Amino acid sequence: MSRFFSSKYKNLIPYTPGEQPKDTQYVKLNTNESPFPPSAKAVEYATEKAKKLQLYSDPECRELVKTAADYFGIEKDEILFTNGSDEILNFAFMAFCDNEHPAVFPDITYGFYSVFADLNGVPYEKIPLNEDFTVNVEDYIGINKTIFLANPNAPTGIALSVTDIERIVASNPDGVVIIDEAYVDFGAESVVPLIHKYSNLIVTQTFSKSRSLAGGRLGFGIASKELIADMNTVKYSTNPYNVNSMTMAAGVGTLLDDEYMKENCLKIAENRQWTTEKLAEMGFTFTESKANFIFAKHSEADGKKIYLKLKEKGVLVRHFDSARLCDYNRITVGSKEQMQVFIDTLKEVLEEIL
Questions:
Q1: What is the rounded distance in angstroms from the CA atom of residue 342 to the CA atom of residue 315?
Q2: Which residues make Cβ contacts (< 8 Å) with residue 39, sequence separation at least 6?
Q3: Which CATH number fits domain 7-36+259-353: 3.30.1300.10, 3.30.1370.20, 3.10.450.50, 3.90.1150.10?
Q4: N- to C-terminal Cα distance for the chain?
Q5: Could you read off the pLDDT of 137-193 as tens digits, one per residue?
Q6: CA-to-CA distance for 181 and 188, rounded, in angstroms?
Q7: What is the pLDDT of residues 287-302, one digit of tens each?
Q8: For the stretch 181-206, what's the b/e string if a residue is b when 16 or more beta carbons lie within 10 angstroms of its beta carbon?
């Protein structure tokens, strides 16, 4: 780092995104992207907006907000769109966390939570998951801190029930609870309807996974009008034009083509089931994923060796080096063709290393 870099960030460890290699053609199953292209309607709407890129985007995202409000059954001032769901999560850390309201989240979860906490100088606590990687709901009852829970969790894919989430939210009336639903469309149940019952609940989602717009960078938060107003204060104090015109238009087209999204999610769920059955036959165990990925380990083979051998053969999955996770690999569920290549290549790898 340079000698000019602020000392307040000297110990900051940035988030490490999944590999995006450009030098080799991979079957890319490492970053939980959709194998399906965006909705044709999304592409059509975005292409039309490209003709007016000389103009600033609408900071209020009015057309997109109206479409989303109708889609989710909420009021227009109960939703805020952002540059990916990472931005809405950062807004939540900025708006609702401080020395009097420390953040809390599981020790194994989305890696950006701790980065956002460090970036914003927020004290935080990591609560260990159970040995089977499930969240112990009792750990979050009545703690009245700012709680961040990914549901389904990453990288495990395990989901909490609506009942469990409601218990956590109801028991923490003096703390904001953020439920990160990036993967909810693949088999879990959303808690968006609970925002009308609990004024301390924020639900975040993304268009990157089930809606095939990872490159578009579009996320959002749904919450009470007051919480949305708080995060809008942060937004308008940082970047009012945070969502570009083409992405907004693509978002509208995506929401209006909901059947396409649902069909793709069903295919992913079917491919997830097929792949887990094949993995079980080869001696793998895995968590019960409700996401578009599988978190698996082999009874005999080293997780990192599997990852490296697959990469050598052109199949990219995600490996984590931490002590509790190093035996596992996270495998994005792609198309049936991609999963067939993955399984065939994995068989070759196991023959070589066992």
A1: 7
A2: 211, 212, 253, 254, 257, 260, 261
A3: 3.90.1150.10
A4: 43
A5: 999 999 999 999 999 999 999 999 999 999 999 999 999 999 999 999 999 999 999
A6: 9
A7: 999 999 999 999 999 9
A8: bbbbbbbbbbbbebbeebebbbbbbb
pLDDT digits over 193-207, tens only? 999 999 999 999 999
Q: Is 242 helix (H, G, I), strand (E, B) or coil?
A: coil
Q: Are 178 and 169 in contact (CB under 8 A)?
A: no
DSSP-assigned letters across all residues of 85-103:
HHHHHHHHHHHH-BTTB-E
Q: Hey, which CATH number is domain 57-257, 3.30.450.40, 3.40.50.300, 3.30.450.20, 3.40.640.10?
A: 3.40.640.10
Whole-number CA gyration radius for the chain = 20
Q: Please give, one letter per residue, the 3-state secondary structure of 269-321.
A: HHHHHHHHHHHHHCCEEECCCCCCEEEEEECCCCHHHHHHHHHHCCEECEECC
Residues comprising the chain, all counted: 354
Neighbours of 233 (CB within 10 A): 13
Three-state DSSP class for residue 58? coil
Q: Where are the domains of the chain?
A: 7-36+259-353, 57-257
Indicate the burial class of 62 (C-beta count within 10 angstroms; 0-12, 13-18, 19 or more).
exposed
Question: Token pair of 125, please?
Answer: 């606590």
